[in-house]
Amino acid sequence: MRSEEFGGLNVSRETLERLETYHELLKKWNPVINLVAKSTIDSAWERHFLDSAQVFSLAPQGVRKWCDLGSGGGFPGLVCATLAAEFSPETEFTLVESDQRKATFLRTVARELGLKVTVLSKRIEQVEPLGADLISARALAALPKLLEFTERHLEPGGYALFQKGESFRKELSESLESWRFSHEEYPSITDASSVILRLGDIERV
Ligand SMILES: C[S@@+](CC[C@H](N)C(=O)[O-])C[C@H]1O[C@@H](n2cnc3c(N)ncnc32)[C@H](O)[C@@H]1O
To answer: Could you say which residues bind S-adenosyl-L-methionine here (predicted)?
Structure first.
C-alpha cells in the first residue's frame, strides 16, 4: 500500500484520505459553527491537523482509553482517533465537548470516516469519571484547571498530553503549588513558541 509522511508518521493512503475528508468537512461547517478561528481556516492543515498529529506521536504505546477534553472541532482528539485507526486500533476514544453543535460535527466526521469514537456532549465536570489512561486537550484551560479535569478522568498511572502556548512555564509553576507530577516538554513542530507537555504521576500536594 502507498504511504506518505504526515506529522512524523508514515501514514497509509487510506488514512490520508480520511484526514482530507475531515478537512473538507471542517471547511464546510466552519462558517456556520466556528469550530476553529476563521483566520486559521486557510492554514488548517498545518495549524490543526499537523498540530494534532504530533500529539499522537507522543502518546505511549498500548493506550486503552484515550479521552480528549473540550474537543471543539476535534483537535487533537479526532485527528488522533483517525491515526489510531491505522496505528493503534485497540485504543478507544472518547471526546467530551459541551457545545451540542460541535458535538454533532464530531459525530458526523466520525461517521463519514468510519471511526468508532464516543462523543459526550456534556460538561467535563459533569461526566462520570472516564477512567482514561491518556487525556489530551488543546486550548481548553490553564494548566491548574486542566489538572482538576484530569484528576477526575485519569486512571492512576496514566498520562496527559497538553498543547500549550508561551505561558506554559508560568502555568507549570502555578500548578506546582497544588500538584505534583513528572513532566516532559516537547517543542511544537507547528509553532516555535509552543510545546506539548507530557505529564505523569499526577497527584495533589
Ligand atoms: C477554545 S476551544 C478549543 C477546541 C479544540 N480543542 C481546539 O483546540 O481546536 C474550547 C472548547 O472546549 C469546550 N469546553 C469548554 N469548557 C468545557 C467544559 N467544561 N466541558 C466540556 N467542553 C468544554 C468549548 O465548547 C470549546 O469547544
So the answer is: 70, 75, 124-125, 138
In this structure, what CATH number is given to the domain that contains residue 142?
A: 3.40.50.150
Residue range 20-34: mean pLDDT, rounded: 97
Ligand 1, atom 1: closest residue by C-alpha:
139
Cα atoms in the Cβ-side hemisphere of radius 13 Å centred on 191: 15
Beta partners for residue 66, in sequence order: 93, 134
Domain that holds residue 94: 3-204
Backbone angles phi, psi at 162, to 5 degrees: -125, 125
Q: What is the atom index within ligand 1 of the atom nearest the CA of 35?
A: 9
For the question of whether the overall pTM of this predicted structure is more than 0.95, the answer is yes
pLDDT of 73 reads 98
What total of structural domains would you count in the chain?
1
- In the reported structure, the alpha carbon of residue 52 is separated from the centroid of ligand 1 by a whole-number distance in angstroms of 15
28: left (phi over 0), alpha (psi -120 to 50) or beta: alpha
List, as residue ranges, the binding site. Answer: 70, 75, 124-125, 138
Report pLDDT digits (tens) over 158-198: 999 999 999 999 999 999 999 999 999 999 999 999 999 99
**pLDDT tens, position by position, 76-123:** 999 999 999 999 999 999 999 999 999 999 999 999 999 999 999 999
> How close are the terminal C-alpha atoms of the chain, in Å?
50
- Atom of ligand 1 lying closest to residue 124 CA: 20
